[in-house]
Amino acid sequence: QVQLVESGGGSVQAGGSLRLSCAASGSSFSNYCMGWFRQAPGKEREGVVRIMSGGSTTYAESVKGRFTISQDNAKTTLYLQMNRLKPEDTAMYYCAAARQYCGFRPPYVGFDYWGQGTQVIVSS
């Protein structure tokens, strides 16, 4: 099984950037579908981006052109580069892993492994 730990969250002004990391242990995620999700207070969890094991990506419309997912060559660290941040990006951000099917609509079927989250706060 893979264990996931996110880091890199923080407070930033609107227009700024942050880079989130998700470190995997117990296993690399080379054969997993990986995703970044976020949840703001009082709102449902939202898929931000997923990357299939073959490398294809799916971004939420709200982050297209601003956020970029990437991973290291060893497939042990997943990144989320977030640029031109907006106050509405404020949320707890989670990475997750799916061994086979990885649905990108609620309830995100297949994403069985989740990190504890890292907080992102964007002030106006």
- Helix vs. strand class: mainly beta
Beta strand count? 11
Task: Describe the sheet with the most strands.
Answer: 7 strands, mixed
Taken in chain order, the helices and strands follow as EEEEEEEEEEE
Backbone CA Rg: 13 Å
Question: Overall pLDDT, averaged?
Answer: 96
Portion of residues in helices? under 10%
Continuous helix count: 0
Low-confidence stretches: none
Strand fraction equals: over 45%
Tell me the span between the first and last alpha carbons. Answer: 40 Å
Q: Which overall shape is indicated by the principal axes computed on the Cα atoms? A: globular
Describe what this molecule looks like in 3D.
- By secondary structure, this protein is an all-beta fold.
- Helices cover 0% and strands 50% of the residues.
- It is built from no helices and 11 strands.
- Strands 2, 4, 5, 6, 9, 10 and 11 form a 7-stranded mixed β-sheet that branches. A 4-stranded antiparallel β-sheet has the order 1-3-8-7, with no helix packed on it.
- The termini are far apart.
Q: What does this entry show, briefly?
A:
0% of the residues lie in helices and 50% in strands.
Defining key terms:
single chain; 124 residues; mainly beta; 7-stranded mixed sheet; 4-stranded antiparallel sheet; 11 strands; globular
Q: How do the strands and helices of this protein lay out in sequence?
A:
Layout: E1 3-7, E2 10-13, E3 18-25, E4 33-39, E5 46-51, E6 57-59, E7 67-71, E8 77-82, E9 91-98, E10 111-114, E11 118-123
Parallel strand pairs: 2-11
Antiparallel strand pairs: 1-3, 3-8, 4-5, 4-9, 5-6, 7-8, 9-10, 9-11
